[in-house]
Amino acid sequence: MTEVAKEQQAASWLAAIWAARYRTPARFVALIALLLPWTTTGLIFALVPWLIAFAFLDLREFPRSLLRPICLLPIALVVLAVMGTLWSDAPWPERIHAIGPAAKLLVIPLLIYQFERWPYGHWVFSAFLASCTALMLYSFAVAIDPSLSLKLYLSRGPYKVESGIAVRNYIDQSQEFALCALALVYPIVSLLRQGRARSAAVFTVLAIGFLANMIFVVVSRTALVTLPILVLVFALLHLRRRAALLAAGAMALAALLLLAVSPHLRTTVAKFQADYEASVQDGQVSGMGSRLEYWRKSLRFVADAPLIGHGTGAIRSLFASAAADGRDDPLRREIVGNPHNQTLSVAVQWGVIGVLALYALWFAHLSMFRGEGLACRIGLLIVVQNMLTSLLNTHLFDFVPGWIYVLGVGVAGGMALAAKRARA
After folding, report:
1. Which range of residues forms the domain containing residue 220?
2. Which InterPro entries match (predicted)?
3. Which of residues 364 and 25 earns the better pLDDT score?
4. What's the mean pLDDT when you consider all of the chain?
């Protein structure tokens, strides 16, 4: 072998080692996305080796990367949660525990830095889609035979068998399926434009499967409220005004038809009015009625400490104090640690300062996804979905929706920034 051939072989080996060095962290992130719809513990175990692999990347530009608002604002919100323990009246275990839901936001700057430099983000999206597809198919099986539900074996306490709930709960499941169904629209359109009808047909079948599961098997009311708004928002963003209006009319007609053919959907819609009447007229605990009561009390808590709030972990103790005045009203005697609204959750604990940080984070991440391409479409969808569903839940701090936000914004954000830098 000549010297030139030896040098070329050595160079190819070095290139392979270098590429493997950066593929490994991406594989761990893909594993996290694969496990997210199914298991909490598995995700945490996959997170540890990814953090170890991340430490071996080229981190010379990492400190400068952290100074950008898209990275600095998640860190600022976590720092605020840590500082909020200093003025909270809650017991220290509750203060420390309340930092955890916000702490996952620290992963966003790491993911942005990684996927801005190494183009393996499609692995993560593919893993999440494949995992949700398997979950969707399993959910149909559980709808036929509820005894197949994994919750029967994984739940720590007594579990009531529910049709279609494969694992965890219907809120997380609906969140994942709605995201996948809408995210598939962009690749379907792109494939059709490229003349790849077969691939587009496969993705279309998957999207219909996700929607059919929500329509005929199980759907959360949060998804039922926010899904039409998401469709309308993206129609306005990506279609001309006339086409968007036609799409809105078609969606309204489709909704009426689906209500006519889906008893499950009619039951879910009717539950809004039933819950409201049960709470307002009878004073009973219910989903919608309880939310209204949580929001009313939370607004009063915010008014008591508008600037810096009551401190990290103070929500449960505040509701406990308010419950003492509830007397025999079961609705007013409820003690919760979650007001089921992201803005109110932040405002009660950290006041106006926290709310400003929260909305600055959302809008900074929205601005990151201005442009064309799959990464921008997925990232924009994830941020808008989180903002809408956070009106009825604390989805930035909840486990599954929060990790969807972290992974989606981190991976898609890095890919979008890399694409913009390449064009520039």
Report:
1. 125-282
2. O-antigen_ligase-rel_domated (IPR007016), WaaL-like (IPR051533)
3. 364
4. 82
